[in-house]
């Protein structure tokens, strides 16, 4: 099942795919959308209002 494939190690899947993904985060202040990496280690500031 697709759920089991997701739980497997990324290298041991039928099709090798990473556990990470990109997500769109909407700024609550100015509603601009920023694309952030799920496993990012740095804090992303909003381009529009720098919050």
Whole-angstrom Rg: 16 Å
Q: What do we call the CATH topology?
A: N-terminal domain of TfIIb
CATH homologous superfamily identity: Ribosomal protein S27
What is the level 1 CATH name? Mainly Beta
Low-confidence sequence ranges: none
InterPro entries: Ribosomal_eS27 (IPR000592), Ribosomal_eS27_Zn-bd_dom_sf (IPR023407), Ribosomal_zn-bd (IPR011332)
GO cellular component, one term: ribonucleoprotein complex
Keywords: Ribonucleoprotein, Ribosomal protein, Zinc
Cofactor: Zn(2+)
Q: Would you spell out the secondary-structure blueprint of this structure?
A:
Blueprint: H1 2-7, E1 22-26, E2 33-37
Antiparallel strand pairs: 1-2
Fold and architecture overview:
Belongs to the eukaryotic ribosomal protein eS27 family. This is Metallopanstimulin 1. One of its GO terms (cellular component) is ribonucleoprotein complex. Keywords: Ribonucleoprotein, Ribosomal protein, Zinc. InterPro entries: Ribosomal_eS27, Ribosomal_eS27_Zn-bd_dom_sf, Ribosomal_zn-bd. It is a single chain. The protein has 51 residues and is of the alpha+beta class. It has a single domain (2-37), classed as N-terminal domain of TfIIb, CATH 2.20.25. It is 12% helix and 20% strand. The chain has one helix at residues 2-7; strands at 22-26, 33-37. It has a two-stranded antiparallel sheet with strand order 1-2. A hairpin with a 6-residue loop joins strand 1 (22-26) and strand 2. The longest helix is centred in the first third of the chain and has 6 residues, at 2-7. The mean pLDDT is 78.
């Amino acid at each position: 099942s697709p759920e089991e494939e997701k739980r497997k190690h990324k290298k041991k899947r039928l099709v090798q795919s990473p556990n990470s993904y990109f997500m769109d985060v909407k700024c609550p202040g100015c509603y601009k959308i920023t694309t952030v990496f799920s496993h990012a280690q740095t804090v992303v500031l909003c381009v529009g209002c720098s919050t």
